[in-house]
Model the fold of this input.
Amino acid sequence: MKQVATQAQQTRPQYTGNDWRRARSILARSFYKELRGSGLTHQQVIELSTELLHLVTGDLKGDSAVP
Done:
């Protein structure tokens, strides 16, 4: 598993500064539009966002339960 993560890290785009701010804004808007377009309510989008934050927090803490 660790080898796969290392390969993914090597191939991911490296955004910095203004490029990253623009990219994350575009990505967030696109993701939001896709979720809403799929029929999710505002509350469901908030719940999904909360779950994503929990996953990131667990990953940062080294939680082995996070895929």
User: Anything to note?
Assistant: DSSP finds three helices and no strands in the chain. Residues 17-37 form the longest helix (21 residues). The two ends are 10 Å apart (CA to CA). The CA atoms of residues 15 and 23 lie 8 Å apart.
